[in-house]
Amino acid sequence: MNKKIPKFKSEDKEREFWATADSTEYINWEKTKKTVFPNLKPSLKKISLRLPQLIIEKPKVLANKRDIPYQSLENVLAERIDQELRSTSR
User: Fold this and answer.
1) Distance of alpha carbon 65 from its chain centroid, rounded?
2) Burial letters for 14-25: b for 16+ Cβ neighbours within 10 Å, e otherwise?
3) What average pLDDT does this structure show over 37-45?
4) What whole-number distance in Å separates Cα of residue 27 and Cα of residue 30?
5) Would the pLDDT of 90 be above 70?
6) Of 41, 60, 61, 70, which has the fewest Cβ atoms less than 10 A away?
7) Whole-number Å distance between alpha carbons of 70 and 75
8) What is the pLDDT of residues 60-81, one digit of tens each?
9) How far apart are CA 77 and CA 60, in angstroms?
10) Are 44 and 34 contacting, i.e. CB atoms less than 8 angstroms apart?
């Protein structure tokens, strides 16, 4: 029998909880089903980074070689990062 998931006063409190809690104590992952949210848009967050100029220019060059807009390359990079995360979590 799994523990009952507590009620949270905010998303921040929930994030704090799940950052340290073992989800297997609260959720039976064997019974979960994969769900797709086709209309869900990811949250965007603006950040400032200090990067060497070369690191900034290389993706622009790659986008140009692929003949795609620079911003579209972000999706390609995100997919590649996901692939890396999946391969390292095995």
Assistant:
1) 27
2) eeeeeeeeeeee
3) 84
4) 9
5) no
6) 41
7) 10
8) 898 899 898 888 888 888 888 9
9) 12
10) no
pLDDT-derived band of residue 20, with 50, 70 and 90 as boundaries? very high
First to last CA, the chain: 27
Polymer length of the chain = 90
Cα separation values, 14 from 5, 29, 34, 35, 52, Å:
10, 19, 22, 21, 36
What backbone torsions phi and psi does residue 78 show, to the nearest 5 degrees?
A: -65, -40
Examine the pLDDT at 89 and tell me if it is beyond 80: no
Query: Taking the C-alpha atoms of 76, 60, 45 and 24 in order, what is their torsion angle to the nearest 10 degrees?
Result: 30
